[in-house]
Amino acid sequence: MTALPLYHIFALMVNFITCFSIGTENWLVANPSDLDGFIDIFIQARLSLFMGVNTLYAHLVTHPRIGEIDFSRLHLAGGGGAPVLDVTSRKWETLTGTFIREGYGLSETAPILSFNPASIREFTATTGLPVPGTDIKLLNEEGIEVAIGEAGEICAKGPQVMRGYWNKPDANTLAFTADGFFLSGYIGRVRRTGFPEHCRSPRHIVQCNHSG
C-alpha cells in the first residue's frame, strides 16, 4: 500500500519502482488524511507491506475502525522520515502482530542507507544496520572518525549514493570527503550493538534515542 506521496524519494523508489519491479499489487492512497477512506482501502487490500511515518501510524492505531482491518497477511511495516516512537510501535504491534522497523536515508541516497533487518524480532528505537554494499562512518568537525557511542556526522558510500549534484561542482566539493563518502549533514551515533542511531540534524531535531 502506498500512502506516501510519490514525489517523495522513498515512495518513488520503494513503493513504486521496487515493488512494481517484482510484480506486486500496489494500492495507492490518494488522500491518507481521509482516515475513513484510508481504512476502507486497508480492508479491501489485506496488505502484506506497509510503509509510513510515525504520525500516520499514530492516527491509525487510535482510529475507532482499526479493528475492522484484517492484518493477518502483514509481514513488514516500515517507518522513516521522522522518528518512530516506541509507544506507536507497541500499539501497532498489539493490533497487527508486527512491530515497525525504522530506516534512514535521504534523497541523495536513493533513498535507504540503513534499515532494521529481518533478523530483528523487536522494536529497536534505532535506524538499523547499513543495507548491503553500504559503508557508513561518523566524522567529527575535524573530519576524524569518532569512536563507538560518540556523536558524529553520518557519512556514506554505496551504489545508491548519488554521484553528485547536477552541474554544481562547488557543492559537490563540500558534499563529499576526499575518499568519496557523502556528507549527509545529519548527526548520529552507533551503539555497541552496531545499530546506527539517528540523533539530530543541523536543520531540525530528528531523533535522539537513549542518548542521555
Low-confidence stretches: 200-212
Q: How would you classify the helix and strand content by structural class?
A: alpha+beta
User: How many individual helices?
Assistant: 5
Number of domains: 2
Strand arrangement across the biggest beta sheet: 1-2-3-4-5
Whole-number mean pLDDT: 89
- Order of H and E elements: HHEHEHEEEEEHEE
Report the major sheet.
5 strands, mixed
Specify the helix fraction band.
10-25%
Total strand count, please?
9
Strand content: 15-25%
Structure, explained:
The chain has 212 residues and is α+β, with helices and mostly antiparallel strands. The chain has two domains: 1-98, Rossmann fold (3-Layer(aba) Sandwich); 121-212, Luciferase, domain 3, CATH 2.30.38. It is 24% helix and 20% strand. The protein contains five helices and nine strands. It has helices at 9-21, 35-45, 54-61, 86-96, 169-175; strands at residues 49-52, 76-79, 100-104, 114-115, 129-130, 135-139, 152-157, 182-190, 196-200. The strands form two sheets. A five-stranded mixed sheet has the order 1-2-3-4-5. It has a four-stranded antiparallel sheet with strand order 6-7-8-9, with no helix packed on it. The longest helix has 13 residues, at 9-21. The model is unreliable at 200-212 (pLDDT under 50).
Summary, kept brief:
The chain is built from 5 helices and 9 strands, in the order ααβαβαβββββαββ. It has 212 residues and is an alpha+beta fold. It folds into 2 domains: 98 residues, 3-Layer(aba) Sandwich (Rossmann fold), CATH 3.40.50.980; 92 residues, Roll (Luciferase, domain 3), CATH 2.30.38.10.
